Amino acid sequence: QVQLVESGGGLVQAGGSLRLSCAASGRTFSNYAMGWFRQAPGKEREFVAAISWSGGSIYYADSVKGRFTISRDNAKNTVYLQMNSLKPEDTAVYYCAAEFAPGRTVVAGPRVHEYDHWGQGTQVTVSS
Predict the structure, then answer these.
(1) pLDDT at position 106, please?
(2) Residue with more model confidence, 126 or 107
(3) Which one-letter DSSP state was computed for residue 2?
(4) What Cα–Cα distance (Å) separates residue 25 from each residue in 76, 77, 78?
(5) How far apart are CA 128 and CA 123, in angstroms?
(6) Is the dihedral of CA 116, 76, 81, 7 positive or negative?
(7) Quick one: pLDDT at residue 105?
(8) What SS3 string covers 19-48?
(9) If DSSP codes are grouped into helix, strand and coil, which group holds residue 90?
(10) pLDDT band at residue 1, thresholds of 50, 70 and 90?
(11) Distance separating alpha carbons of residues 92 and 98, to the nearest angstrom
(12) What is the CA radius of gyration of the chain?
C-alpha cells in the first residue's frame, strides 16, 4: 500500500503561484508513475499532469500547459506541482495519484482509472 499526502494548497490571487507537494510512503516510490488531478465543485475529476518514474515522460492537460510544471525527487519520495500564472478557473481540490509502473516510460497519464492510490487532496483557491 502507498500512502500519499498532499500539501501546499491555499488561497492566492490570480496571477500568483503555488507549489504543491505530494509525499509518498509505504512502497518503493520509484516504482510508481505519479499524477496530479483536480476536482472543482460540481465537476468531474480532471487530469492536470503526470510523470513517469524517471521523469523521462511528462504529460500535461492543455489547460495548464506552459503554466504548471510537474517534477519528482525519488530520493525524497515526493512529487511536486509548480503552478504559475494561476487563474480563478484553477480553483479546485488537487489530488496526487500513484500508478504502479516500474521501469515504464509509457504510463497512464490522464487515464484516471489506471491509478492505484490516491491522496486526500489539498484545496487551491484562486481569487480574481
Answers:
(1) 83
(2) 126
(3) -
(4) 10, 7, 9
(5) 16
(6) positive
(7) 84
(8) EEEEEEECCCHHHEEEEEEEECCCCCCEEE
(9) helix
(10) confident
(11) 19
(12) 13
Distances in Å between the Cα of 61 and the Cα atoms of 2, 38, 49, 53 are 25, 11, 6, 19
Residue 78 and residue 26 in contact, taking contact as beta carbons nearer than 8 Å: no
Tell me what percent of the residues of the chain surpass a pLDDT of 70. 100
Say how far residue 91 (Cα) sits from the centre of its chain.
14
The number of beta carbons lying within 10 Å of the beta carbon of residue 112 is 16
Three-class DSSP category at 112: helix
Q: pLDDT for 86-103, tens place per residue?
A: 999 999 999 999 999 998
For residue 86 the three cell numbers come to 494561476
Give dist(CA 25, CA 12) in Å, integer: 29
Instruction: Report yes or no: 122 and 94 within 8 Å, Cβ to Cβ.
Output: yes
Name the one residue in this structure whose C-alpha cell is 491555499. 10
Looking from the CA of 57 toward its CB, the CA atoms found within 13 Å total: 16
